[in-house]
Design a protein that fits this description.
Elements lengths: L5 E7 L3 H12 L8 E8 L5 H6 L4 E5 L4 H10 L5 E4 L4 E3 L3 H6 L7 E10 L5 H16 L3 E2 L7 E4 H7 L12 H11 L3 E12 L5 H20 L13 H19 L4 H10 L2 H11 L7 H25 L4
Parallel strand pairs: 1-2, 1-4, 2-3, 6-9
Antiparallel strand pairs: 4-8, 5-9, 6-8, 7-9
């Protein structure tokens, strides 16, 4: 059976420092060159992104700053692929990335094929910790999943046409991929998880930036769940720790108003549930410094709930957006 024609779509905003490595990694794919194209969509960059793209013989599109969801839509709608691969401008796909995703393209009921995540030679412990934690989550996930990340996914063109693609109301890089995932599965398609198709992130995480991203994800998730409340407990990316963590944090916050006398027990419980994954990462990474990330995940639990509260107020109470 003939391989599908693949269009790789890369949205970018002020990513000139990392974009070149992303493009090179996409050009170096082992996929047949006559069945392959790359499209960069510049979402209103004010750096030298256009000059970086000009060094390569690939397609470049520019749009006024409108967000990654609309950029991805402009990319696939101006492509000629039967299959559309999405990745980000700070990512480095493995050389067999497209091939590994395309292996599952012809499954009749599969509308999208998602891959996994790693870090690209970062010396920073936070980068490595996030890598190990995501890998741990991915190891728990089944063959067919409920949502994907747009840093590593292939979607059939017909599926994008049926669903309308990404919702541009998600104007930040958060929620638009899960929203589309839910609409794909709601249309009767399945999402296959190819655990051997890897994309590495090149970006260097800083703690404040990482926590802000966690806040933003929780904030936009409230918009996502307003229209998909039934998916709160069905999303296969989460597991028991996430739900227990949220319950403990909300109970702790409530205790400030109702003078609960067992706050110390709640804090201890919240801290203790961080330890299993932290110890697992400690044994994988073989550095005692990883144990300190139990404090990071402890703080992250509060940041996520605060983001969710702000999102709930906006999207559920005031019905904005």
């Amino acid at each position: 059976m003939e391989k599908p024609f693949v269009s790789v779509v890369i949205p970018t905003f002020n990513s000139a420092s990392t974009l070149s490595l992303t493009i090179k990694a996409c050009l170096d794919q082992d996929y047949p060159k006559d069945r392959f194209e790359i499209i960069v969509i510049d979402d209103g960059s004010c750096d030298n992104t256009k000059d970086v793209v000009a060094e390569f013989r690939i397609k470049y599109l520019y749009q006024k700053k409108s967000g990654p969801a609309l950029a991805r839509n402009n990319g696939w709608r101006n492509s000629k692929g039967d299959a559309i691969c999405f990745t980000d401008a700070d990512c480095i796909p493995d050389g067999d990335w497209v091939s590994k995703l395309a292996q599952h393209y012809n499954m009749n009921d599969v509308g999208a094929v998602a891959g996994s995540y790693s870090v690209h030679g970062s010396p920073y412990l936070l980068d490595k910790f996030v890598h190990y934690e995501i890998q741990d989550r991915h190891s728990r996930m089944p063959e067919h999943i409920s949502s994907f990340g747009t840093y590593n996914v292939m979607i059939k063109r017909v599926v994008l046409e049926v669903t309308g693609g990404f919702n541009p109301e998600y104007y930040n890089a958060s929620g638009e991929d899960t929203d589309l995932s839910y609409r794909i599965t709601g249309a009767g398609y399945r999402i296959y998880f190819a655990k051997d198709a890897f994309v590495s992130h090149k970006n260097i995480l800083r703690l404040w930036k990482y926590l802000f991203v966690q806040f933003r994800h929780s904030y936009w998730r409230m918009k996502l769940y307003r229209g998909n409340a039934h998916m709160i407990v069905k999303d296969r990316y989460g597991y028991w720790k996430d739900f227990l963590e949220a319950l403990l944090v909300m109970t702790l916050i409530s205790s400030l108003f109702f003078n609960f006398g067992y706050r110390a027990m709640l804090i201890a419980a919240l801290f203790l549930i961080q330890l299993p994954v932290v110890f697992k990462i400690f044994f994988q990474g073989k550095s005692i410094l990883y144990l300190s990330f139990s404090l990071v995940t402890f703080i992250r639990a509060f940041i996520r709930i605060v983001g969710g509260i702000f999102g709930f107020i906006k999207f559920w109470i005031f019905r904005m957006g």
